[in-house]
Amino acid sequence: MYYSRIIKSVRVKMAAKTILKLLGVAPDATGHSEKLIAATGALVAIAATMATSLQFVGAQGAALLVASMGASAVLLFAVPHGALSQPWALVGGHLVSALIGVSCAMLVSDPFVAGPLAVALAIYAMHHLRCIHPPGGATTLAAVVGGAEVHALGYQFVLTPVLLNVAIMLLVAVAVNYPFPWRRYPAGLKPASPRLAAPAKLNHANFSYALREIGSYLDVTEDDLAKVYRLACKHATRISDDEETLAPGNYYSNGEFGDRLSVRKVIEIDGDTVSFMFSAGVGEGDEGTASRAEFMSWQRYEVIPADGAWHRIMRL
Prior knowledge:
6 strands; elongated; six-stranded antiparallel sheet; alpha+beta; 2 domains
């Protein structure tokens, strides 16, 4: 009965992890102060761009255009160091998209054709000009379906209000983020981190700790970092561990990360047979057996549980 409850609990946890993974729900290591700074910056920037847009394109056009600026605000203030948030992406993405939107509105009379065409061409142009900025898609649509006041501006729409709004967003992003060295925008203003020699190997706990310490939102997961690190190590040199002596009661890891992590606790060694329990990963709580050679081939190093994570035992 006891073991059946454990197995049921493990299955529920695994199902929950699977659902969260499918939904794309990732751990959030962003601090509360970071969230407050991002919200404050967006408040100032959007208030200014709303006032500006109303002066040039009226309520209908302003509603559409400010929507694209709202999307830019999410990138500039919540993910200030992301590639899609940098100045060239912001300026180039909006201006190129606005130019294409106005052109499509002038040349194609049917908005149901002009709208999709404008977005497609904007994406194509942003790719080639290396200024991909998702809110540009909304800007190009605003030029097409923004109404008579937007259409009356013609190519002036690219300068006022689009360029003016982009300039406001850029200045507010620089001003709001500058007092915080770790958030400075653009990313080139952020102080360079000291160069440190990389350890021989990193594990899942190391990446979790790093994300928590950074505090700011990063558009990257622990698994992404782990994959980059593994590929870098593979390119630089092949890393392998010497076999370690097995002992009952000790925990051993396969050296993987995220959902691929597996930890086994050795229960008993009987001749060439190793009995163990799955302590983390698929099958957590179950027991199994393997030959000594199979177990040694599977394991990469010994670990210990501490602070809710698995830490490698470094042997000197």
